[in-house]
Amino acid sequence: MATTSDIRKGMCLEHNNDTFAIVEFQHVKPGKGNAFVRTKLKSMTTGKVLDHTFPAGHKINEVRVERRKFQYLYNDDMGYHFMNNENYEQVSIAEEMIDRPDLLKEGMEVDIIYHAEREVPLTLEMPQYIELVITYTEPGVKGDTATNTLKPATVETGAEVRVPLFINQGDKVKVDTASGAYVERVKQ
């Protein structure tokens, strides 16, 4: 059992029969009244973010989690299938547990966060950036580069990304997996 003084960013805890990760926290000591800890918690199962205030010294149930490396294999009606890189066991994960499933590329390495005591997968974390090839986009109009205009483009995974006008079909681009936004063109 931990207390509110042990709270840190990224810590996982049991709250309202769910597992939450602490996204932000702030210890507050007002002039009048008791101190408290204001937190922003993200559910590891649903992805919902909620604000919660704990009184100072409140006991919290810390959850031990493990980060394991997996390789993405394929998806079907059963879910998304991954292989453990150490023991080659396969695990299936529901689409709701993945933030941007449309950016998953076969053979890509991801981290799956497990509840250590129950051996249950909680969430999946992709690398911050991935490199994808543009499979389709409209050609840019010559001379139309004065504005910072973006056009839709389809990448090799089937996801649609907004890219600058100078990006052409066959170019390799770096994409931010958190937002699905174009970052830069990759030199080939």
What is the fold's blueprint, element by element?
Layout: E1 2-3, E2 12-15, E3 18-28, E4 36-43, E5 49-55, E6 59-62, E7 65-76, E8 79-84, E9 90-93, E10 109-115, E11 120-125, E12 129-137, E13 150-155, E14 160-164, E15 172-176, E16 182-185
Antiparallel strand pairs: 1-6, 2-3, 2-6, 3-4, 4-5, 7-8, 7-10, 8-9, 10-11, 12-13, 12-15, 13-14, 15-16
Description of the structure:
Helix content is 0%, strand content 53%. The protein is flat, with a radius of gyration of 21 Å. By secondary structure, the chain is mainly beta. The mean pLDDT is 88.
Order of helices and strands: EEEEEEEEEEEEEEEE
Q: How helix-rich are the residues, as a percent range?
A: under 10%
What general outline do the C-alpha atoms trace? flat
How do the strands of the widest beta sheet line up side by side?
1-6-2-3-4-5
Instruction: Count the DSSP helices.
Output: 0
Strand content: over 45%
- Assembly form of the protein: single chain
Mean pLDDT, all residues: 88
Q: What's the main sheet like? A: 6 strands, antiparallel
Give me the secondary-structure category. Answer: mainly beta
CATH-level-2 architecture of the largest domain: Roll
Domain module count: 3
Low-confidence blocks of residues: none
Distance between the termini: 52 Å
